[in-house]
Design brief:
The chain has helices at residues 4-11, 71-83; strands at residues 15-16, 19-20, 23-25, 35-49, 52-66, 88-92, 96-98, 103-115. By secondary structure, it is α+β, with helices and mostly antiparallel strands.
């Protein structure tokens, strides 16, 4: 499943605490100090019928980068992932501080199932 269209639509013009938070696939090349990136890290069959895959599971991550406290933002991103994207929240990854960028970084992993339409 191509999750890009769903994520782009849900997070388009995303505002949090009066600030617009940009989102970009893989790499953000703007100048905001708080932003999101996303990517798919696994797509695999999750259900079968008559030895053919009928359900595809897509696993992805939305990464939060910020130079300030991101805890409330993290909860809002998870709320949007679950309630607006329709994905299942799996876990928060390792919270990290990246010395070279001076930004905090936390990945949020999610999962979504869809029917397979290419067979």
């Amino acid at each position: 499943m191509n999750i890009n269209e769903i994520i782009e639509k849900v997070f388009e013009n995303f505002e949090f605490e009066g600030q617009t938070i940009p989102i970009s696939p893989f790499v953000y090349d703007g100048n905001k100090k708080t932003y999101l990136t996303y990517y798919t890290y696994l797509s695999q069959p999750e259900g079968f019928s008559n030895d053919l895959p009928i359900v595809e599971g897509t696993y992805g991550t939305i990464d939060i980068y910020s130079n300030k406290d991101y805890k409330k933002l993290k909860n809002e991103v998870k709320r949007k992932i679950v309630n607006e994207c329709g994905f299942t929240w799996l876990q928060d990854g390792l919270e990290d501080y990246e010395e070279e960028t001076k930004l905090y970084h936390v990945p949020i992993d999610f999962f979504v199932e869809s029917g397979i339409d290419f067979i």
